[in-house]
Amino acid sequence: LIPPLPLRVFAPDAEVVLPQALTASQLFGIERLTGIELEAAAGVVGLSQLFLRWLALMPEGDHEHPIDPPGLTVMRISGGRYRVTGAHRVVWRWMNKFSPASEFGLPGEADEEGDGDGGGTDFDFGDLVTMTIVDVFETDSDGMLLSYCPTFDNRSVRRTQEAVERIRRGTRQIGDGVRAFAKSPAGRTATAAAGGLGKMALMAGSMVRHRIEEEVARHGA
Question: For residue 134, what is the enclosing H or E element?
Answer without folding.
Answer: strand 128-139
